[in-house]
Backbone:
């Protein structure tokens, strides 16, 4: 009995030891289905990536990864070119490093970077804000100088063309200078900062230059025109319209121009005692024979009282006026009278009778007393 009891006791102790060992193992590794050995999560972005560097052609941008949870083990980068608002982005081929050097193709665009964080359980992405608009890497460079157009004469207006530039200028500024006859010893003209310049009396005898300054984000560059021809004095006033042909309105004629009476006829062609009424036809011109409309014409016989004095007549579109005169008792002025002398005057309304652009003329017509 004693031997059997001892054997049973040994088997119980062995089973107890195995159970204790199993409990110990369970304490270390956990019980299946409890979730104590769940997988770690993929990275999660808690602060977006940022881009440092100057947004200028030739500069290098650097991506900062931002802040991530769940311990990323690696980062990848993808740079994109976007519109000025940071939208409509497209990937830049080959731009997958943490740094990116801005190219000519980037000028006028903005840049973003996408950072991808990875750990053993997965990957996640986060995108930076867009950069400022990328500017040209250098100040503008002039490739064809500016030019000045216009007549080099006092009273005319000159205009400067910008010329041709590299570097995509965003603005232009202007400054005009007055120079000697050879284009040297130039001095700035105060207030002359527009692309046009009205030539002043002070410019007569000098030459003029214009300086165009082109600007972009990289800086500013000036370029100056060649000098103009020597500025001529203003032409002497003629009192006539500057151009054109045909009829002139009397209001457009001023001194030193003068009116002219270039045609005078009388009906009947020979004045006789039977000519109780005569018609006098007058044509007024100015500025090289152009007919004048609106001039006032006056006529009277000399000596006075041979024929009536009609009211002033106004010339029409052909420059002509017709005046009717009635015979008075003073005709004939002499028994042997052979000529009827008439005094003509043409004037501008409002001018003095003996001044302004008026003209006066004595004309004689044949008389027959037979």
Residues:
């Amino acid at each position: 009995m004693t031997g059997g009891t001892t054997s049973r006791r040994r088997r119980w102790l062995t089973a107890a030891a195995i159970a204790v060992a199993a409990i110990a193992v369970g304490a270390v590794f956990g019980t299946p289905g409890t979730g104590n050995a769940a997988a770690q999560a993929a990275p999660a972005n808690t602060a977006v990536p940022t881009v440092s560097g100057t947004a200028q052609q030739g500069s290098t941008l650097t991506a900062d990864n931002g802040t991530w949870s769940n311990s990323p083990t690696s980062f990848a980068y993808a740079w994109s070119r976007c519109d000025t608002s940071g939208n409509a982005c497209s990937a830049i081929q080959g731009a997958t490093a943490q740094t990116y050097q801005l190219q000519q193709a980037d000028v006028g665009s903005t840049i973003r970077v996408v950072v991808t964080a990875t750990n053993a359980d997965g990957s996640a992405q986060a995108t930076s804000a867009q950069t400022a608009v990328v500017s040209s890497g250098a100040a503008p460079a002039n490739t064809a100088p500016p030019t000045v157009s216009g007549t080099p004469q006092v009273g005319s207006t000159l205009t400067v063309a910008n010329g041709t530039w590299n570097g995509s200028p965003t603005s232009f500024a202007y400054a005009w200078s007055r120079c000697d006859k050879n284009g040297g010893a130039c001095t700035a003209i105060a207030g002359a900062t527009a692309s046009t310049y009205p030539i002043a009396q002070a410019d007569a005898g000098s030459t003029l230059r214009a300086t165009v300054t082109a600007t972009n984000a990289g800086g500013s560059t000036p370029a100056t025109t060649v000098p103009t021809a020597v500025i001529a004095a203003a032409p002497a006033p003629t009192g006539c319209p500057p151009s054109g042909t045909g009829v002139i309105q009397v209001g457009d004629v001023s001194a030193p121009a003068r009116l002219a009476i270039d045609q005078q006829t009388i009906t009947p062609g020979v004045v006789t005692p039977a000519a109780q009424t005569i018609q006098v036809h007058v044509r007024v011109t100015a500025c090289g024979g152009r007919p004048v409309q609106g001039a006032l014409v006056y006529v009277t016989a000399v000596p006075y009282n041979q024929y009536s004095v009609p009211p002033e007549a106004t010339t029409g579109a052909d420059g002509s006026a017709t005046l009717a005169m009635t015979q008075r008792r003073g005709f004939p002025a002499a028994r042997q009278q052979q000529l009827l002398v008439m005094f003509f005057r043409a004037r501008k309304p409002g001018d003095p009778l003996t001044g302004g652009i008026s003209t006066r003329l004595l004309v004689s017509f044949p008389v027959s007393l037979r």
Observations:
- The domain at 141-224 is CATH 2.60.40.2700 (Immunoglobulin-like).
- Residues 1-6, 12-38 have pLDDT under 50 and may be disordered.
